[in-house]
Amino acid sequence: MIAHIGIHEKAAIEVDLNKPIDISIPIKNGDNNPNCYWAEDVRFETIRAEGFVGSVAEGGSVNYQKLTLTPHGNGTHVECYGHITNSGTTVSSQLKNFHFYAKLITLTPEKSTNGDLVIQLNDVVKQTNWEGIKALIIRTFPNDREKLVRSYSGTNPPYFSKELIEYIVDKGIEHLLVDLPSLDKEVDGGVLAAHNAFWALHGQLRKNATITELVYVRDTIPDANYLLNLQTINLEMDAAPCKPTLYAIEKFIPLKA
Questions:
Q1: Which tens digit of pLDDT belongs to each residue from 155-169?
Q2: Strand boundaries in the chain, DSSP class E
């Protein structure tokens, strides 16, 4: 299925909707998932009642299971500003559109003066063409497949500088997707400088902006512009599991003035 989608007043893009590029991490039973902030492991549990077992393998007529999951800690998830406020705001109430003109870039963390690894505002970001871009996916190096199952808790993983976040906000980015467990340092005393900068919590609050964490972008996917489909379950929480999907741009179509 071929779609033509206008990205701004000057151009449209052509994408093949039959060629999705999934950048989410599948959620599995047990500890075979990424884990951060000391979340419990995911659990799939068979429902049992008198005369009933929710397992075909055990003789039941259907499979019927309960899922125990921590959205922020167990895998790919999208969050809204309700994550850092007492507003009670949920992802479902803020994320109303699901397709965005997006850019994928790859950045390498740099060692800061305090010894932390930080993704900084650098020439790669400054030299990027942001015209029409509303969503940004940041892949970080190294990019090994261990990201699919890594336990981040207590490891002080790389995080993003406030300057970088302020820069992309100024460029109009409304949806940020990263392959790390958080924009901010694992333990920072509650400062949350990058989260606050992205949602402009102390200025004109960016209510419709979202952050997606723990994506995984394979090395075979080139840095480029894409169509992003950011879908999530209709869960009334500040964060929800999601399945961000990219579509390669087959061609650009100039629009008549």
A1: 999 999 999 999 999
A2: 2-8, 11-22, 43-46, 48-49, 52-53, 65-68, 77-79, 99-107, 110-111, 117-119, 135-140, 159-160, 175-178, 210-213, 224-232, 239-254
